Amino acid sequence: MRFLHTADWHLGRIFHGMHLTGDQSYILETIEEIIKDEAIEAYIIAGDIYDRAVPPPEAVELLGQHLEIVAGDLKIPVIMIAGNHDSAERLNFCSGIMRNSNLFIYGNPVAKIQEVILEDKHGPVRFFPFPYGDPERFRELYEVSESITHESAYRLMMESLNPLFPKKCREVAITHAFISGGQSSDSERPLVIGSAGNVSADLFNRFNYTALGHLHSPQSINSTLRYSGSIMKYSIAEANHSKSVSVVEINDTGDVKITEIPLRPKKDLRIITGSFKEIMERSDSGSREDYVVVRLTDVLGLYEPMNRLRERYPNIIHLERVNSSVAQNSVFSAGREKKDDLELFLQFYKVVTERDVAPAAMDVISDAIKSVVEAEA
Amino acid sequence: MRPLYLKIQAIGPYSKSEEIDFSVLGDKRLFLIHGPTGSGKTSILDAMTYALYGDTSGRDRTTEQMRSHWADEEIESLVEFEFAIGGNIYRILRKPKQSLKKRRGDGTREFNAEAKLWRIKENGDREFMVDGFSDVTRAIESLLGFTSEQFRQVIVLPQGKFRDLLSARSDKREEILKILFGTVKYSLIQDKLKELSAEVRRALEDNRLAFDNMLKNEGCDTIEKLILNISSIESDIRTKEMEFSFLKEREKIVSKSYNDAIVLEKKFEELQNAKIAFEKLKAKESDIKNIESRVNILKRVVELKDFYDILTESRLKVESLKKRLEETTAAVSKETSRFEKAQQEKDKISDADKKLETITQEIIQLESAREIITEIQKAESIIEDLESKYSIFTKEEEEIAKKQKDLEKEEQELSDKLRDCEIADARLSETRQKIAIVELAGKKLKDYEDKTKELISKKESLQELKSQKEKLVKQYEEIAIRRSKLEREWLEGYSAVVAKSLVPGKPCPVCGSIDHPSPANELREPPSDAMIESLREEEKVSMEKLSAIERDIAALEGSINEIKPELILNDIPLIYRDKNIDELRDTYRETKKTLEELLSILNGKNNLEIKKSATEKSLANIKERASEVENNIKILDRDLSAERRHLEELKKRTPFAVTLQDLENKIKTLKDKKERGLKWKANVEEEYVNAKESLARAKLGFENLTENYNGEVQKSSDKFREFQQRLIIAGISSEKEFEDLLQKIDTIPSMDKEIDQYKQDMAAATERLKRSQFDVNGNSRPDLVSIQKEMEELNKSLEMSISFISSAKSNLERLKKIHTELLKKNKEISDLEERFEVIKDLSDVANGKNIYNITFQRFVLQSIFEEVLEISSGRLERMSRGRYRLITTGKAENRRIGGGLDLEVFDEYTGRSRSVVTLSGGEAFLASLSLAVGLADLVQQRSGGIYLDTVFVDEGFGSLDGETLDLAINTLMDVQSSGRLVGIISHVDELKERIDARLEVIPQSDGSKTKFFV
Fold first, then answer.
1. Is residue A332 assigned to a domain?
2. Do B489 and B429 have their domain in common?
3. Residue B854 belongs to a domain with what CATH number?
4. Chain centroid offset of residue A371 CA
């Protein structure tokens, strides 16, 4: 069976003030072409469909249109789980009815895991969805009293599978988590404030393939655990990633072969480094419409760099100064260490008169200071 | 300061008691206080601030408004707050001033605000520290290191207010920084320097003035003049001194001779006096001899005195012993009779003993009877008591029944009245409607009348205009006729002129015909062109007038057509259409009156309702009381019968019917008797023993005394014989003479003295006479008067000289002193001038007169401010991904003494800085947040003992978009990772997804509740 594994769409994301829905729509159209070209039999989306719990209406519309084309027109079964950015309840809307139309949506984790069985010419393949949940949820589901982490939650889920499904046929897991060994970037929201919420990879040993979502860089943890990566670059740190979807072929014995199909966006995200003059004048092989992050190496101050750069790159999203010297307009910095009052005064005097305090004046000022301090006490 | 436990009771939206236990958070350091708007989130911070300082977090809410309006009168408003500072745990309880229901009776009572502070020890005990509303606040200020102002800037970032620091003007910002960093002392130092400078200047001026005055007093302008004066005085003195010594020489000589003369004169006088004295004494010689002989006799008496005394003493002793003997005899006989009596009494004792025994037995019997009777009395009194209570309750029962009936009747009346109100209510709206209609009709009717009047007047004017027009037409026609006549004349005239030039066969200049059948011949002069022109003008004018009037007529007719009063009539409702104004007015008034009546009925409705509910309540109360009373009556009944039974039993046990009082009396009498008997017995026995003893003593005394008396008599007569012998030897005739002389012996010493004195005086006078005769030997009496005169003259001139010299000398002294002082003053002045220069410089510089026009305090503030900005700017840079930085404004030279703490935002995108008010809401929030956190960091760094381990941020997140919200939360996580507890207050739902520890505030109908979700 051939299926397409993708994840981390973040529909409706606002990136440095820009709505990316147009670009996302372009990419989803590309994916529809890929599905047609590669004879895909199942479509797996491993979480973070939307960027926020309450997404903007354009994003919802986009998802609806895309799913209608894939599940409705192309009649490909779609298995979709909620990630940590999604609101599970909202995503789960009418999921029970949609099963009849090839749409298998899983919002919240449940105690009794439900599987989707799809047939290829060698027999059935079981797909197990493990949507994202807060560890507290699992505590309620499995009635556990002590504190729970993501790791222990997954352990519980896997243990509950054993009695229900003794392994006999090919099995694919779909989940949204941070597997130990994965490489994260700036754009993933931490699952637990403070720690990473790691889950160890060997909990998934029984599955022929595990389709992962959450990390935005396409990467394989091992031969059967893989992150498809996000469909677009969603943070400046991802500027060097190359985005793709993964086409997975599973044969009759359960071995998998993975093919990466690159995704080319309408507007790419690039980082351009150089001095202002260079950037404005040199030739650029990339598109001017790209989302550009400019890192200026100029040392001196510049006049309206952003507006002027925008003339060349109308979709510039950010600029940084690499070497800029912070203008020292403070003549009066009194130094970091705490000085005592007399030292402060001496320094003050020196700065504002450009001479030192006369020795004859020293005891006058130290007496004055002493008398004020005593009066305060 | 870390919050541990907070209890809010009857404050803000928390009408009952609400407890928040922060230890539930465990080690989670970022938590969200979430709830819908108005549920009570900020109130939690208010309560914390109030507990600590007695005022609230935003200045919008005052402490009087703190008490919950939903709270029951009986629940008191208070806040209890337990928190940790460093390693110590403290607990505060604070209550605002409030009115609560009294504990006894009806109504409310005002309770004053109070506060208490405890320290909680390791074992959990409370150790009392301070109480008193402002004392506790002061203790907190010193424990935390903040005042409430600073607290609000640094720990609790209140809703909308921490933007103040960012967008404040620089003098406002200065105030805040001053308080936070305690730079007031620098301004005090400035002032102190200024003070010193003024002091020194004053001293300088005073000294200079004094210097000038001193010189002026001496009439000198300069010190040199003074020196000249001094030296002239010195030379005067020297001259005078020489004069003086010359005079002094002369005086010495004269005075010597004068002295000699005086001495001699004295000697002569002395001789005279000595002679006189000697004669006087000689005269007294014989008197003195008499005195001498008298003294001798008296001296002999003195010798005999002692012996005489002994004799007298002996005589007296004899007398006294005789008296005592007599007394003793009497005493002995008395004692004998006493003893006999005592013996008699002793014999009576045995009878008395027997009587006492009988009395004792009787007493015992009577006492047992008394006990029983006492009990009976007790029982009787209890029964009385119960019976009276019973009658009271029965009476009350009757009263309650009556009251109940009254209340029921009242209730019924009130319900009837309320029904009336409802009817009135229904009619109200229809009455109002009627009034409106009538008003409308009246207005329309008036309009109609007005319009009709207008129409008539316009028609009249139209008539006038029309008649005017006729006149004008006539005028015009007349003018036209005149004009045409004139034109004809003109034509005829000129035709005649032309005709004159006609030549047959030559063409007519007018028509060109060769034939001229009948040429015109007019003889008259043709009228001038001018005349015709003027007529034409007239005609034109007339025509114009005519057309004008026609226009007016047309206009008027047009407006007349427009006025259609009957249309107005259509607006009037049918029923009133044919009424007139007065009728309408009447209808209006009537309807208005009806309305007022209805309204007054309805006004009363509220009161009726209140009364009715009150009545119902009292009815319920009364019924309760009735059943209570019934209960009590039953209980009393039961008790009463029990007591009566008890009494019966007791009565059976008494032996005889007699009152308790009689019994008591009898017992008492018997007891007294017994006691008296016993006492009598004891007395008798004692008396017997005493009487025997004293008789024996008296007899012994008598014997001794008789012996003494006899002896003394013998001694006395011996002494008398001896005395008489001695008298004869001394030459005194009788004892009587002796006694007289004895009186006078104290004159002896004075007489002796007189004699001696005389002897001495005589010897001295003789000596004196001899000496003075010797002294005078050979000299004659001197002439004192002339010498005296010379002496006097000399002395006078000497005195004058001396006085001149001394006054000159003292003046010299004075001037010299003044000179020294002036020199000293001069030095002082120059020292002061030096000092003044130095101090003035310091003061000026410190107070802003320097290159940069900046005062000391402002300098320190600015450097602090720059430090704050550095720290905050770093945060802001991170939060804005390197786009924004905070910087201070202006070049150094341009700062005035007032400005200098302005800040701006530097935008990398434009490469320039701009004012902070140009930031969007969300950006301003980030900037304010980073500023506040930077401030907090710096305050903590500098102040050491201030613990900033908690930060609360109240709202502000609603204005951020998704991305910026993430950045803001990342900043807060940063803050929290440095060990601080960060609490966020927000209603933004998205935050619920991001932050897992949360305190949910749930509003309910009777106040709000809180619950932790962790």
1. no
2. yes
3. 3.40.50
4. 62
Residues A169 and A187 in one domain: yes
My answer on whether B965 and B941 are in the same domain is no
Domain end call among B905, B930, B947: B947
The pLDDT value recorded for residue A191 is: 66
Asked if residue A131 and residue A9 are part of one domain, the reply reads yes
Q: The tokens of B64 are what?
A: 């009087």
Query: Given an 8 Å threshold on Cβ–Cβ distance, is B963 in contact with A301?
Result: no
Question: A226, exposed or middle or buried, with CB in 10 Å at 0-12, 13-18, 19+?
Answer: buried
The structural domain count of chain A equals: 3
Q: Amino acid identity of B286?
A: S
* B405 domain residue, yes or no: yes
More confident residue, B145 or B116: B116
Indicate the DSSP class of residue B16: E
The count of structural domains within chain B is 3
Phi, psi for residue B977 in degrees, rounded to 5: -75, -15
Q: What is the pLDDT of residues B429-443, one digit of tens each?
A: 888 888 888 888 878
pLDDT digits (tens, 9 = 90+) for B658-700: 677 887 888 888 888 888 888 888 888 888 888 888 888 888 8
Torsion, Cα of B303, B306, B307, B311 (10° steps): 150
Q: Could you please report the per-residue DSSP string of B472-522?
A: HHHHHHHHHHHHHHHHHHHHHHHHHHHHHT--TTSPPTTT--S--SS----
Q: Tell me the one-letter amino acid at B796.
A: K
Cβ–Cβ of B189/A369 closer than 8 Å? yes
Contact between chains at A376 and B973 (C-beta distance less than 8 A): no
Closest partner residue to B862 (CB to CB) among A320, A332, A357 is: A332
Q: Which of A85, A86, A348, A350 to mutate: most B Cβ within 10 Å?
A: A348
B121 with B9, same domain?
A: yes
B412 inside domain = yes
Task: Please enumerate in sequence order all residues whose Cβ is within 8 A of that of B120, keeping only pairs 6 or more positions apart, or say none.
Answer: B82, B89, B90, B91, B126, B127
Same domain, B29 and B149: yes
Query: Are residues B900 and B1014 located together in one domain of the fold?
Result: no
Report the CATH number at residue A108: 3.60.21.10
B650: contact with A, CB 8 A cutoff: no
Torsion sign, CA atoms B594, B595, B596, B600? positive
> In chain A, which ranges are E strands?
2-6, 14-15, 18-19, 42-45, 78-81, 103-106, 116-120, 123-130, 170-176, 178-179, 198-199, 209-213, 219-220, 225-227, 244-250, 256-262, 269-274, 291-296, 316-321
DSSP string, B941-966: HHHSS----EEEEES-GGG--HHHHH
pLDDT at A230: 92
Chain B residues close to A358, C-beta within 8 Å: 838, 841
Q: How far apart are CA B106 and CA B253, in angstroms?
A: 119
The radius of gyration of chain B from alpha carbons, rounded to an integer in Å, stands at 71
Is A299 inside a domain boundary?
A: yes
Which ipTM was obtained for this model? 0.72
Task: Dump pLDDT digits (tens) for A314-358.
Answer: 888 888 887 655 544 444 444 455 667 788 888 888 888 888 888
Q: Domain of residue A298: give its range.
A: 269-321
A189/A275 same-domain check = no
The dihedrals phi and psi of B550, each to the nearest 5 degrees, come to -60, -40
Backbone phi and psi for residue B757, each to the nearest 5 degrees, phi listed first: -55, -45
Asked if residues B622 and B400 have their Cβ atoms less than 8 Å apart, the reply is: yes
- The answer on B417 and B372 residing in a single domain is yes
Write the pLDDT tens digit of every residue in B918-947. 887 778 878 887 887 777 777 767 765 566
Residues A38 and A175 in one domain: yes
- Residue B522: predicted pLDDT: 66
**Residue B908 to residue A305, Cβ atoms within 8 A:** yes
User: Where is the domain boundary, B528, B546, B576?
Assistant: B576
Q: Are residues B45 and B194 in the same domain?
A: no
Coil/strand/helix, residue B793: helix
What is the C-alpha separation between B969 and B922, in angstroms, rounded? 13
